[in-house]
Amino acid sequence: MLEESVSPKKSTILQQQFNRVGRVEHGSVALPGIIRSGSIGCPDNTFNMGTMPSAQQQITTGQMHRGHMPPLNLAQQALMGTINTSMQAVQQAQADLGEVDNLPPLGQDMASRVWVQNKVDESKHEIHSQVDAITAGTASVVNLTAGDPTDTDYTAVGCAITTISSNLTEMSRGVKLLAALVEDQVGSGQNLMGAARTLTGAVSDLLRSVEPAAGEPRQTVLTAAGSIGQASGDLLRHMGEGETDERFQDILMSLAKAVANAAAMMVLKAKNVAQVAEDTVLQNRVIAAATRCALSTSQLVACTKVVSPTISSPVCQEQLVEAGKLVDRSVENCVEACLAATDEGELLKQVGAAANTVSQALSDLLQHVRHYASCGEPIGRYDQATDTIMTVTESIFTSMGDAGEMVRQARVLAQATSDLVNAMRSDAEAEVDVDNSKKLLAAAKLLADATARMVEAAKGAAAYPENEDQQQRLREAAEGLRVATNAAAQNAIKKKLVNRLEIAAKQAAAAATQTIAAAQNAAASNKNTASHQQLVHSCKAVADHIPQLIQGMRSNQAQPEELSSQLALIMASQSFLQPGSKMVTSAKSTVPTVTDQAAAMQLGQCAKNLATCLAELRTATQKAHEACGPLEIDYALNAVQTLRSELQDARMAAHDGQLKPLPGESLEKCAQDLGSTSKAVGSSMAQLLTCAAQGNEHYTGVAARETAQALRTLAQAARGVAASTKEPQSAAAMLDSAQYVMEGSAMLIHEAHQALVSPGDAESQQRLAQVARAVSHSLNNCVNCLPGQKDVDMALRSIGEASKKLLVDTLPTCSKSFQEAQSELNHTAAELNHSAGDVVHSSRGTSSQLAMASGKFSEDFDEFLDTGIEMAGHTQCQEDQIEVIGNLKNISMASSKLLLAAKSLSVDPGAANAKNLLAAAARTVTESINQLITLCTQQAPGQKECDNALRELEAVRGLLDNPSEPVSELSYFDCIESVMENSKVLGESMAGISQHCKTGDVPAAHTHDAIAEAVQLMKEAVDDIMVTLNEAASEGGMVGGMVEAIAEAMGRLNEGTPPEPEGSFVDYQTTMVKYSKAIAITTQEMMTKSVTCPEELGGLASQVTVDYSQLAHQGRLAAATADPEEVGFQIKTRVQELGHGCIYLVQKAGALQMSPTDSFSKRELIECARGVTEKVSMVLSALQAGNKGTQACITAASTVSGIIADLDTTIMFASAGTLNPENEESFADHRESILKTAKALVEDTKRLVSGAASSQDRLAQAAQSSANTITMLTDVVKLGATSMGSDDPETQVVLINAVRDVAKALAELIGATKCAAGKPADDPSMYQLKSAAKVMVTNVTSLLKTVKAVEDEATRGTRALEATIECIKQELTVFQSKDVPEKSTTPEEFIRMTKGITTATAKAVAAGNSAQQEHVIATANLSRKAISDMLTTCKQAACHPEVSEEVRSKALHYGSECTTGYIDLLEQVLLVIQKPTADQRQQLAVHSKCVAGCVTELIQTAEAMKGSEWVDPEDPTVIAETELLGAAASIEAAAKKLEQLKPRAKPKQADETLDFEEQILEAAKSIAAATSALVKSASAAQRELVAQGKVGSILANAVDDGQWSHGLISAARMVAAATSNLCEAANASVQGHASEEKLISSAKQVAASTAQLLVACKVKAQPDSEAMRRLQAAGNAVKRASDNLVKAAQKAAFDKADDHSVVVKTRFVGGIAQIIAAQEEMLRKERELEEARKKLAQIRQQQYKFLPSELREDER
């Protein structure tokens, strides 16, 4: 190939090519041999010789062709991964369908036949629901892949494909089982397997056709989808579950084809329009719209073919409706394109007529589907009237208070009842049976009379609409009419309700099957093990209940008129609700942890669908139960009698040797089920007896139903044990005993029913007790028939027989020496002790193991008893013999208890405390043996102790093999403390053993080294366990160390002479206030966490401990500097009292942490927390008494800090364009108020300055007055800014910035006043006070100028620039001070802030050149923000401890230089605006270059701060996307938590309502939903910017994009965190553990973080884009929802305050004390409020770093 230079338009694109991927085919490449004639190789032939031709060269020119697919995007790549995974699942299903399941041989008894029938029904239902999901998923794929590939939602496509593959996998298993069950039917099983394989192949074809890299034609996809529909129908028909109404399917297809024909006609009409269109663009648009219309119609036909076999499924109907909507939209688009293309009326008329034809055909199709959805049943004669009556009566009940609405509803009600009466009379006339005719006429008369009463009541209500008694009469009359309607149409209503219940049960079972399949599919990509295990557990519980629900449906379908069938369905539905709801909760909580988006979407959709079905099932069950009545006792009696018949049939099969276990049954499983169920039967029967004796019919019915369910499990287990055992006699005994249990239980239920009929009858109660005793005896006999139990009983009898040897008067003569007897006693004791351990272990194993272990134990006991009696004969003293015999009796008793405990545990391993009892019995056996050995081995000193220790170690060593099993009643922390104490004793004891062994036995020196080595190993082991225990104690939150720390801090308060103070009382007072408030806040948090999250109490208690230690230290210094001394004594006393409260609080926190569900501990903790809060207020009161004025300054400073933070939030809302007036008002309405309030603030400033040199009272008054005045000033300024409207946000920001400067200056002035209070005139603090006062006056003057100029468009820009210059100068003064910032920041954050300087500089130059006031205002606002951010981060970064002094000085220097240069630039802009000349404009460039040079130096300095460890971050846009989605998931999880909340129950009292909790929950739910929508909109906005190329990983934009993306990340996290806090506060508030104030602050935090997210998203976006409009709407929704919650909480707080009653004391002294106490409480609450505002401001300032520099607010 020759290469030459070519033009770009003819260049060759070399790119990756996606080829078709085929499947491997096996075959032989060898071809059969062929024998040919030899003439070709004849030597007579001639040969030609020559040379090969030379190389030819050919040059081809022409247009370039793209012979490859474009590269796949990330979504398409994810879809390819999903398809590949699904294809593997399909291939596995294809392989599994090769042969049917291999079932064990089944018997022919009734239980076996019932099992087979139930399994067939369950399999058919599951397969049907799975086929429904497959066809619905196929239709979804068809619908989702219809449009342009660039617009396809590939995640949704992947979800549909995942649904298909997961259900296909489950379907293949069900088909194999069903084929095995119906294999005896000729050909049925193989036909079923063949149909399933055909469906699997069709699914495989569909997956290949939708691969993004395949590029298959659209028709291939539709053909594959149609094949799936055909195969699905064949499979259902082979299964006997096909749609019964084939005519309906034919009509459905004909209607779909009618839509297609109408659409084809419309396409022709549209092409006629295209031919006459003059504009080519419009012509192409018409052609494209017509083409889309044709495609959507063909797609509808294909979708109809797919879902037609399973059209009874709601999900399939939904997909067909969705396809119809696509056709409808395409028709509308085609009509709009035609209207825009031409004005010819005739053509447009034809197009319109064709469109109407398509719409009508589509309507007919959808109406046909809806008709089938309602089961095709005509509305009965009574149905519509009764439905109307029920609905309208509900409306009347809810319309109480609105007489007009009640009367209107009454008219509708009267018409409906008239129709019903006429229908009943007509039926009565046509009725042949005279009795039935009379019943109908009587019911009609009853209904007519009730109607007449209701009409009269309605007339009274209409005549007197204000009379509540008339409305109440109408309500009562409507209730009577409702009752009469129920009585008249009872049978029809009951039939309808049961039918609805059957439909709801079917849908719920199908939805549960889908959810289980989705959960299994999501397991592979779920990274959270805990949530996965929880989901698996809940799925298993639901899977166990689905068969019962299906059996109830089948029974009701077979016998719809039978009451027993109806009750069975109702009971099965009630039992299904609880596990179903738990599975929904588990599935929803698992969705965020699933990494595969398609699997997560499938699981989320299935969980949502199941929740909807469960809600419908719950409603249908309740209504059906009400209609059928309380007949649980009859149902239970019939169920027990059926069980008795099944057991009798099984007994006959066992007699003939034909009883076989069912699949899945084993001897051990059935025995364990029987043992555990026997206790459940006993418990339910006891409840039945109690309820029957009390005459409570409802609870007696419930107990009877539970008894029947437990007996069902017992009967199944008994049959399984009998079928699994190999001994015919044991099987017969088991079945006989179980049959006796059933007979007795039936008699018991019957007697309970009789006791309800005649309550209080002594004879009936006596019969009931006798029957109960007989049932209990039968139940014990049944349990004793279990394998292994007989062996234990034999061992018990053997021990009893052997123990009779101890009852003789004289012992037999000894045949062995003392040493031999002692040695043999030791040997048999060790054997018996070992056998006891075997009994303990075997009780957790199989029945055969227990039988063997118990037999061995009885043999060893017999041998031990003989050697013990032999040893007793060697004792010379009669008393010693008696003592030995007594010990042997104790061992006999302990051995019997051990076997009884092992027997109990083997019957029911899950029984409470059974394992503890067994372990205790084993320890008793060991201790009894030790006592006997000790008594018999007195001769060797130390020998008995060593032997006893070895036996005890041998006994407890087995416990370590099962560390999760409890062995004592100690709690976790008690165990830790016990082990720590005993470990110390163990170490000391081992040292003692070593020492005494070396000194007691000197000749045995050869053993000393071994002893020393053993002791060393023991010491190391003890040390290791001590380290481990200490770590566990610290992690578990043990509070002993915290209590000691608090007590130590309290003790230091009174220790001798305090150290020399380095500060004044004011300094210590300020610090103590800080730590006191911190303790109060943490205490409040502990109250909340005690309810919502008790495991976090340990960390909070630790924080209280740390804060109190600091408080106590500062209190000691404050007491030393207080004047007079009484104040210091008071401070120490109050701090001491607070310490006691903190100790109690920490102790209660530890107790609650160890038992989180203990309500008593929660109440104690809350009481202790309240006590701590009160003691904090007493500390603050003591501090205030020491310096009232400075305390007032602290409070006022806190108030101003909160105001500044509130203004920051208001500025963000103004910047986002969401600060709108609520009514029609102008700025002029507020101007005078602003000016008046500002002047009053100047007067307060003067009093504040003079108060520093006067008394504390005057200073306090001045501080309080200034705080009140600045509050009023900010309120009126915000109102003024709001009245200007969001059309001019920059001017709003200018005005709010002006008052913010005033507030900031006032905060500085108050701080200076506090420091200067009481100081002499020449003190340096007085000079700082005067300087702060000047700044204050300057800023107030600037505010007044801004207010006057804000409406003057010619000067307000100039005024804004002047104010900004003054603000920057003040910022520079603070920057150049020696104060060290409270926190540090990173160099990269500093670099980001310099970016804002560059932007602001460019805008300043542009504003100077344009001289337009709006540009100047924008420059002023941006400059203020940019310089403030730069100075703050510059100082924070420079003061980082790791930054060298040289770099720090350099950074501070260039920060000042940059600010000075920027001030010069702004002053030059101001000069240019006032005197615009060419020379002045040229100076702008000079100043801007100066600023740019300083910025460069700053960046280089920041780079020097980084060091050598700096690396570039990851792609910021990806991080932003992930965080936004994570925030959305967090918010949705919080919203789900809110959905589970209910208002706490309160006792009903007069004149009180319970509405506030409901308002809290509704408002909080609204906020959670709105924030979820907001974050999703922000995610869409970010994706839009990435698609537009405005955000990406291009190097030139990396810093800017990273800045924007990190801002978006921080904002999303803040929104999610704020919403989570709101939900937590709502939960605590509803439960009564948090105040309305906390709820209000949480809502305001949501609003503030929302404003930040809005600003962050609007930085780079187009303001008129669709995503931004949605984002703005979502933000407004959050703000409205937050405002609603705040208003509701404030109103509740106000109402609560109004409800408080105060008892005024009449005595003079008591009254004065009461006033003082009230004033003290008021001041304390005010201080707490201001401190809370200050903390809120600090939190906002510390977190608010995410915005780009041009929009960032001040961080201080």
TrEMBL record:
<dbReference type="Pfam" id="PF21865">
    <property type="entry name" value="TLN1-like_RS"/>
</dbReference>
<dbReference type="GO" id="GO:0005737">
    <property type="term" value="C:cytoplasm"/>
</dbReference>
<dbReference type="GO" id="GO:0005178">
    <property type="term" value="F:integrin binding"/>
</dbReference>
<dbReference type="GO" id="GO:0030036">
    <property type="term" value="P:actin cytoskeleton organization"/>
</dbReference>
<dbReference type="InterPro" id="IPR015009">
    <property type="entry name" value="Vinculin-bd_dom"/>
</dbReference>
<feature type="coiled-coil region">
    <location>
        <begin position="1715"/>
        <end position="1742"/>
    </location>
</feature>
<dbReference type="Pfam" id="PF21896">
    <property type="entry name" value="Talin_IBS2B"/>
</dbReference>
<dbReference type="Pfam" id="PF09141">
    <property type="entry name" value="Talin_middle"/>
</dbReference>
<dbReference type="Pfam" id="PF21692">
    <property type="entry name" value="Talin_R4"/>
</dbReference>
<feature type="domain" description="I/LWEQ">
    <location>
        <begin position="1508"/>
        <end position="1747"/>
    </location>
</feature>
<dbReference type="GO" id="GO:0051015">
    <property type="term" value="F:actin filament binding"/>
</dbReference>
<dbReference type="GO" id="GO:0001726">
    <property type="term" value="C:ruffle"/>
</dbReference>
<dbReference type="Pfam" id="PF08913">
    <property type="entry name" value="VBS"/>
</dbReference>
<dbReference type="GO" id="GO:0005925">
    <property type="term" value="C:focal adhesion"/>
</dbReference>
<dbReference type="InterPro" id="IPR015224">
    <property type="entry name" value="Talin_cent"/>
</dbReference>
<protein>
    <submittedName>
        <fullName>Talin 2</fullName>
    </submittedName>
</protein>
<dbReference type="GO" id="GO:0005886">
    <property type="term" value="C:plasma membrane"/>
</dbReference>
<keyword id="KW-0963">Cytoplasm</keyword>
<keyword id="KW-0175">Coiled coil</keyword>
<dbReference type="GO" id="GO:0098609">
    <property type="term" value="P:cell-cell adhesion"/>
</dbReference>
<dbReference type="InterPro" id="IPR035964">
    <property type="entry name" value="I/LWEQ_dom_sf"/>
</dbReference>
<dbReference type="InterPro" id="IPR054060">
    <property type="entry name" value="TLN1-like_RS"/>
</dbReference>
<dbReference type="InterPro" id="IPR057346">
    <property type="entry name" value="Talin1/2_VBS2"/>
</dbReference>
<dbReference type="GO" id="GO:0005200">
    <property type="term" value="F:structural constituent of cytoskeleton"/>
</dbReference>
<dbReference type="InterPro" id="IPR054082">
    <property type="entry name" value="Talin_IBS2B"/>
</dbReference>
<dbReference type="InterPro" id="IPR002558">
    <property type="entry name" value="ILWEQ_dom"/>
</dbReference>
<dbReference type="Pfam" id="PF25177">
    <property type="entry name" value="Talin_VBS2"/>
</dbReference>
<dbReference type="InterPro" id="IPR036723">
    <property type="entry name" value="Alpha-catenin/vinculin-like_sf"/>
</dbReference>
<dbReference type="InterPro" id="IPR036476">
    <property type="entry name" value="Talin_cent_sf"/>
</dbReference>
<dbReference type="Pfam" id="PF01608">
    <property type="entry name" value="I_LWEQ"/>
</dbReference>
<dbReference type="InterPro" id="IPR049108">
    <property type="entry name" value="Talin_R4"/>
</dbReference>
